[in-house]
């Protein structure tokens, strides 16, 4: 509106100065609140053309344009009262057709929409913190590259945050506006991160140049020595393989194949399966330490330790399928006994022999007293084992400290171990004098002299 128009309006209506100084600030909200509310021809007027120029027809069938249910009821009640007052005259006038009524109604609606649209445009133009004004200010900034990520991130931020637009427009200079946008869009953090990353890289390069160990040499440089040593034992002389690994070449090949196919042992990129098994067997056979095996096979000590435990875990899984009695073995007479007159029929009910053995171990100082064997005078582990007459182990119990007595280990295994082969009714195991003579276990009679050379 022009200044003259406002001055005339303020003279007639002094309160209009408030609307001029403080225009409407939320046109979309007013649009949502009053877009569907209209007034009658008698009460309303068009804001751009002054009072309404629509002809006033009291007999118009559309005195109000209504939307709510209350207005429908009010219009219906007014019609009924008017019809009762005027009688047939009103009824006859309502039947007259008015071909221009829809045109007038459509024009009024269009004028209302144009008014709202113009109000929005005026609001966007007069609002100093609108998106359009902020975009104009953003385009005018010469220190901001319009092809940078900060420019596009700033557009998204200013379009979505009204308070941010107000702060942006209130900043005094361009440098502070750029700094504000960097902080709000997260670009400042990215710039700080890359700057510090460059500093860290520079420090690493400097430390690498100053590292006193940068010229140190590799300790084990013959990478293929372990594999060549393993292949020499497998394909060389059989006696050399037996002396090193305590098994023949064919047995070693079958062991490697079974561990790979049935028990999940896998080779790595740097160490083959046969070499890993050979390192484990040589460690156990000769009681070697990791450092010696690492030097012999030219491997890192960590590699030797890891491969040793991988092979050991596979051997433990295999032992569950091997060290156990066969089906019905404990209930049948062994053919070796039945074919030897020295034993049959005297030992026809015997199903095997049971005994304990002490194996030397290395333990820490805090466990040394627990594993100390008074008779052997060094730490040991008491292992309980049962074998049949085919010289095959059918049960072992490993891990008991050397101070434990043989009879206590047998009692514990018979009562708590579910895999212990309990002798069936009428059968027994042969035991030595360290065990009691009881049902299921036959020990030598005390104070009786035996002649082992006769057996």
UniProtKB/TrEMBL annotation:
Keywords: Hydrolase, Metal-binding, Nuclease, Nucleus. GO terms for molecular function: hydrolase activity; metal ion binding; nuclease activity. Residues 354-446 form the DDE Tnp4 domain. Residues 226-316 form the DUF8040 domain. It comes from the Eukaryota. Pfam families: DDE_Tnp_4, DUF8040. One of its GO terms (cellular component) is nucleus. Its cofactor is a divalent metal cation. The keyword Nucleotide-binding does not apply. Belongs to the HARBI1 family. PANTHER family: NUCLEASE, PTHR22930. This is Harbinger transposase-derived nuclease domain.
């Amino acid at each position: 509106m022009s200044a003259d128009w406002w001055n005339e309006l303020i003279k007639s209506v002094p309160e209009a100065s408030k609307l001029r100084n403080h225009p409407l600030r939320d046109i979309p909200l007013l649009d949502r609140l009053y877009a569907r509310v209209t007034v009658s021809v008698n009460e309303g007027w068009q804001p751009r053309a002054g009072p309404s120029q629509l002809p006033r027809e009291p007999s118009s069938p559309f005195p109000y344009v209504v939307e709510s249910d209350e207005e429908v009821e009010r219009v219906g009640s007014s019609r009924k009262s008017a019809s009762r007052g005027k009688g047939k005259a009103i009824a006859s006038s309502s039947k007259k057709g008015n071909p221009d009524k829809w045109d007038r109604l459509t024009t009024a609606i269009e004028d209302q929409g144009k008014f709202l649209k113009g109000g929005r445009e005026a609001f966007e133009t007069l609002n100093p913190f609108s998106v359009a004004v902020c975009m104009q200010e953003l385009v005018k900034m010469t220190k901001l590259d319009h092809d940078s990520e900060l420019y596009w991130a700033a557009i998204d931020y200013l379009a979505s945050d009204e308070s941010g637009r107000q702060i942006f427009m209130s900043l005094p200079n361009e440098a502070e506006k750029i700094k504000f946008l960097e902080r709000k869009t997260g670009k400042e953090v990215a710039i700080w991160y890359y700057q510090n990353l460059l500093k860290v890289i520079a420090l690493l390069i400097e430390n690498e140049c100053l590292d006193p160990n940068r010229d140190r040499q590799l300790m084990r440089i013959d990478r293929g020595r372990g594999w060549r040593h393993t292949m020499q034992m497998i394909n060389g002389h059989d006696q050399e393989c037996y002396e090193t690994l305590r098994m023949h070449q064919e047995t070693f090949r079958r062991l490697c194949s079974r561990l790979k196919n049935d028990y999940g042992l896998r080779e790595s990129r740097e160490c083959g399966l046969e070499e890993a098994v050979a390192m484990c067997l040589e460690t156990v056979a000769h009681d070697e330490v990791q450092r010696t095996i690492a030097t012999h096979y030219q491997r890192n000590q960590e590699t030797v330790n890891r491969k040793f435990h991988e092979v050991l875990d596979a051997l433990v899984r295999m032992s569950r399928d091997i060290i156990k009695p066969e089906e019905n073995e404990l209930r049948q007479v062994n053919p070796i006994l039945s074919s030897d007159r020295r034993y049959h029929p005297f030992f026809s009910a015997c199903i095997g022999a049971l005994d304990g053995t002490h194996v030397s171990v290395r333990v820490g100082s805090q466990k040394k007293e627990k594993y100390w064997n008074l008779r052997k005078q060094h730490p040991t582990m008491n292992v309980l084992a049962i074998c049949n007459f085919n010289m095959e182990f059918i049960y072992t119990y490993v891990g008991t400290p050397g101070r434990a007595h043989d009879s206590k280990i047998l009692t514990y295994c018979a009562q708590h171990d579910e895999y212990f082969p309990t002798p069936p009714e009428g059968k027994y195991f042969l035991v030595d004098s360290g065990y009691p003579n009881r049902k299921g276990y036959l020990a030598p009679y005390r104070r009786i002299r035996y002649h082992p050379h006769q057996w």
